[in-house]
Structures are given as C-alpha cells and as structure tokens.
Amino acid sequence: QAPQQVERVSTLCPSCKPEQEQVNIAKANLELPRYQTVQIKPVRVEVPYEVYFDLNSAELNADARRVLDEVVGKVRETNPSRVTVTAHADTSGGNKYNQKLSERRANAVQQYLLAAGVEPLRLNLQPVGEAQPRVNTGDGVVEGRNRFATVTFNY
Questions:
Q1: Is the pTM of this model over 0.85?
Q2: Could you tell me the CA-to-CA distances from 2 to 5, 24, 27, 61 in Å, in that order?
Q3: Residue 154, strand partner residues
Q4: Which tens digits make up the pLDDT trace of 52-88?
Q5: Spatial separation of the C-alpha atoms in residues 127 and 130, rounded to whole Å
Q6: Is residue 105 within 8 Å of 62, Cβ to Cβ?
C-alpha cells in the first residue's frame, strides 16, 4: 500500500522551515489512538500521632492521654487494619535500659488504647529504644524530643 500524501501546514509561523512544521493529521485521514480512562486510587497520607514522656518514665501524662483519645476517635472513624505504636527513648541510660523503657512506653500506649476499645489484633508494638532518635545526640544525653511514641495507621 502506497503511503498517503500528507499536507504540511505551518502552525508556528509562515516562514518556518519544513522540519519545524507539524503534520495536519486530520487532513492525512490517519487513525489516532484512543485515550483510556484510568482510575487513580487516592493515597491516604496521615501525620503520626505523637505522645511524649518524662525522663525515665512510661507514665501517660494529661497531654498524652488527650492525644490518645484523638487516636481512639480516628480508629473508630476510619477503621484501620493495623495501629502501630513505635516507642523511643533518649540516650541518657544504657542501651538495655532504654530498650526496656521503650517497651514500657509502648505497653502504656497499648493499655490505654485497649481500655478505650481498640481491638488487640489491630495493635502492633515496635519499641526501638534509643536506635531511632528524632534528634541525634551523643551517648548519655538527656533529650526530651527523643522520649516519645508515635501511633500510625495502615489501611
């Protein structure tokens, strides 16, 4: 089959060179590909909930309980499949002590959420001790911003 003659029509300017011209596909009577409709699944991005602890403590203060009440409301509203509690410690104690302290902090958050009606099978605890500080410090440093737990959701 012989190629079709295609009329060239300048779309840029009357004095443009032929290689700058665009082919008028409609006049060439060519078949164009059809567009497909694609559904895009929305991505849920959420900021983790954070609770902070006093030095050498796993006790939930009033601010922490207020944040955890918000977590409970969010769980009831959005029904996540998993609620992850990641608990941290600063470097003011030894590694073993800080690991145990972050475990106690994770457990304190877990107990509060359980008492508020969050199902146990949804909860995932990740006590990380001093391994993932928010603020990098040397060993043996008291840093309040590293004494916290985050609560995140998976759907």
A1: no
A2: 9, 19, 17, 83
A3: 82
A4: 999 999 999 999 999 999 999 999 999 999 999 999 9
A5: 9
A6: no
